[in-house]
Amino acid sequence: MSVHQPRTVAQAIEDAASTTKNGYRFVEENTDAEPFFSHGAIERASARFGGAMQALGLKKGDRVALILPDNADFIFSFLGAVRAGIVPVPIYPPTGLGKLAGYLENTLHIVERSGAKVLITSSEIKLMLGTIAAKAPALQKVVNVEPLRASKEELSPAKINLDDVCFLQFTSGSTSRPKGVTLTHRNLAANVHAIMDLGLGVRDSVDSGVSWLPLYHDMGLIGFVIAPIYHKNTITFLPPLLFLKRPARWLDAISRHRGTISFGPNFAYALCVKRIKEQEMTGLDLSSWRVAGCGAEPIRAENLKAFADKFASVGFDPKAFVCCYGMAESTLAISFSKLGTGVNVDVVEGDKLWSAHKAEPVAAGAERAAPIVQCGSAFTDHDIAVFAPDDTEGQKPLGNREVGELRLRGPSVMEGYWDEPELTKNAFAGGWLKTGDLGYLADGLVHICGRSKEVIIVNGRNYYPQDLEWEAGNVTGVRRGNVIAFGTMKPHGDRERVVVVFETQVAGEDALHTLKADVRKAVQQGIGLTADDVVAVKVGVLPKTSSGKLQRAKTRELYETGELYMRTSARDVDRLDQVKELAKSQLGYFRTALFGSKPEE
Amino acid sequence: MKFSPAKVRQELIAILSAHAQAGSTVSEKSHLVGDLGIDSLGVMEVLADIEDKFNLSIPDDALRDVDTVASVVRAIETRLQKEGRLEG
Predict the structure, then answer these.
(1) Using one digit for the tens of pLDDT, what is the confidence trace for B33-86?
(2) Domain end marker among A411, A428, A453
(3) Residue A3 DSSP symbol
(4) Closest C-alpha to B69, from B32, B36, B44
(5) Domains and CATH numbers, chain B
(6) Of A453, A486, A511, the domain-final residue
(7) Cβ atoms of residues A350 and A370 within 8 Å
């Protein structure tokens, strides 16, 4: 067994520079030209971008915010900064549909919190950002990327160590404030080794990837920009919006370039099943695709099966599926299902899972059978254990097939959130990173049942109900503080349905219709998320605890059973509810997610 | 192929009706998200349908100016006009 020697990302870029055959290719929407940059060319382009940033006055350890919708611009700027020791802070670009206000607020927060001195963006987005520089005191300049492309500045060598910060990865927070996961070169080297060597058995210079994933997201950035540099692989990039518009272009790129590795969240596979037409499959050949990774949101085995069935005729191998568990706080990957085994489902007894927190195997066809997708075991040098969610000491791990919060430790785990000591402290328990995900280990294999934090995940992005509730609560006619938002799984759907319920004194069909549309607009503009259902209820209907706190899980349950519509006041049912509540486990609301609707029938 | 303004509206309403949430009626004033409940993935699908129907290419940044049905009509007409394919 060879010993793994960690290298910095900067070192990996230099090591790959002698490679002229492999590199990055950029597919564009309206042209057949696919610009290709060898790893040698990437080394040179990144040096110029890095030199240009140094010329802007940025020094080792300074932060630079990047809002770059163009994949090539982003990659060269990001890698250039890293080589100069400057810490890049990727921020997602605005996507439109009138949600600019919320976007600007988010962007300003990230810029302020990271202390970025310079923000690099396209001239078009710069106009949209307006006076952001005036509002963030540490931000000295907003710079257009276009002149950087032609820059001839030389990169002054910077000494980069494994324990230097490589970049900040901002994720949505539990309030409306994103948190910056601080990743060192050592974190990245460890996780890249885990992904490429231990997880996927990547062959240097041989395997070739295809990715439409956004580069401001960990799966796209670490999985398809950083990791392939360490292993000198060729990657073909597509713009994310092109995939969303024409999903067939993803598979077409894999087919034409003989891609062997490509990843997507669950919804991407479902989207291909739904959107790709028979005639778009003509000539497609997916037989080269040996790793079809699925991660970043809950995996539903039936969606992957539908994909495998649909594309079997064009050479897709269902054994190519690799089910992945990961999170930004652990760099990217936590565990992968074993290569070449496809989707493995652990069928357990549903009632025991929810009430007794035990995952007891049953036959697949059994009544109350709950299928849980298996995501493999911890990588070498990393540990995963399950603890009771209220175990703050992290001293007493639960046993085999006992359900609790998954926690991890190892070299991929972040040291903390940037400039957030309190949040960082709360993220750990006794040296273990708390994932907030509920699950169990069966003979060391990770199984995720759901999330303990009521996060709503749509298209791979996390949304916190509090944020939606805040936006809806600002709408005139809505009783502020009496709004509840939650996600619920559609029966056999491919994603979570987002529901917003609010109390109001407004009456009359037309007035209520307008009010609901206003709420939907407010949520869309503030958060960028479309509510699937907006429900108005009378004053006093939303369930509350004795201390007056709104009960989100309870509201979801009432919604799912249809009882919400029948309630006229909370008072008459509350006592019975309290008794029922005691008898239930916190996992109760995963019933619907696993069984689809109405498990009682 | 050429399109009259009336035809643009008619075809667009047909496309949007297929994507709108059940129970909603498409009019020029409808807000794609607020009134028709079309989410960001749905909008990309609508965009693909529009490109196919009108044989146009609509860049992603055009999305930033789109919120109501009327604004989509304008986006289509502007592009048809440029190619000399808007009648009347």
Answers:
(1) 767 867 667 888 999 999 999 999 888 777 767 778 999 999 999 999 999 999
(2) A453
(3) P
(4) B32
(5) 5-82 (1.10.1200.10)
(6) A453
(7) yes
Whether residues A236 and A258 fall in one domain? no
The pLDDT value recorded for residue A550 is 73
Number of domains in chain A: 3
pLDDT digits (tens, 9 = 90+) for A231-279: 999 999 999 989 999 999 999 999 999 999 999 998 899 999 999 999 9
Q: What is the mean pLDDT of residues A438-463?
A: 79
CATH number at residue A314: 3.40.50.12780
User: Is residue A600, in this structure, part of any structural domain at all?
Assistant: no
Residue-wise pLDDT for A545-582, tens only, equals 544 567 787 788 788 777 777 665 443 333 334 333 33
Give the 3-state DSSP-derived string for A408-436, with helices as H, strands as E and coil as C: EECCCCCCCECCCHHHHHHHEECCEEEEE
Q: Which of B21, B43, B59 sits opposite A97 (nearest CB)?
A: B43
For the record, the structure tokens of A133 come out as 């520089």
Q: Does B22 touch chain A (CB under 8 A)?
A: no
Give the whole-angstrom CA distance, residue A38 versus residue A234.
Answer: 8
Residues 6+ apart with CB under 8 A from A489: A496, A497, A592, A593, A596
ipTM of the complex: 0.91
Measure B61 CA to nearest chain A CA, in Å: 8
Does B34 contact A518 at a Cβ distance shorter than 8 Å? yes
For A261, A536, A566, the CA distances from A145, given in Å and listed in that order, are: 31, 46, 57
Nearest CA among A341, A459, A369 for reference residue A95: A459
pLDDT in tens, A386-436: 998 778 898 899 999 998 899 999 999 999 999 999 999 999 999 999 998
Nearest to A30 among B33, B57, B61 (CB): B57
Minimum Cα–Cα distance from A271: chain B residue: B41
Q: In Å, how far is B33's CA from the nearest CA of chain A?
A: 7
Distance from the Cα of B7 to chain A's closest Cα (Å) equals 24
CB contact under 8 A, A97 and B44: no
| Domain membership of residue A573 as a residue range | 458-595
Q: What phi, psi does A407 have (nearest 5°)?
A: -135, 150
With 70 as the cut, is the pLDDT of residue A355 above it?
Answer: no
Residues of B in contact with A95 (CB under 8 A): 40, 63-64
> Which of A241, A459, A517 faces B34 most closely, judged by CB atoms?
A517
